[in-house]
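Example 3.2
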Amino acid sequence: MITDYTTYADVRAACGLSSDELSDTQLALALYADTLSLAMADVVLPAEEPGPGPLETRYAALKLIVTPTAPQIKLLALTRRFATYVVAHEVYNTLPITAPKTVSDSKTILTRFSSDATFLQAMKNVADTLSAIKFDIENINATSLMGNIDLLRVVNRATDVVTNQ
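Structure, written as tokens:
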């Protein structure tokens, strides 16, 4: 069940769709749950904290911790984002068939994608985000929380000015 990791609303937001265009019933299909389960099985966690193991198992264990550490909180958030984008990526595989290009009544009109290029760019953005999240999960550890904060450092000279050594 994808709702163990993400919400239907989050998936729709990642796809830029409304509940009329992508219903809860459609997102509850086993296709999306199976796709998510297989994708999570492909993620390899490092041995450092928050600990090795299958992503599904680690996520379930971390949800039970009352006061998780910073790396554990980060892994929980990354797992939720990963789940959202895995399902969104799968939705995009069927989107050209299911999402409306134009919806009209006597007063209003809705056009989903202005061109095929726009649709392809949206699909590429979802795929790129999914790859980045998977990379972050597979490379998570305590030191990764600092990010690029320490860009400037004091560097000692290679030789002493006074002794020239």
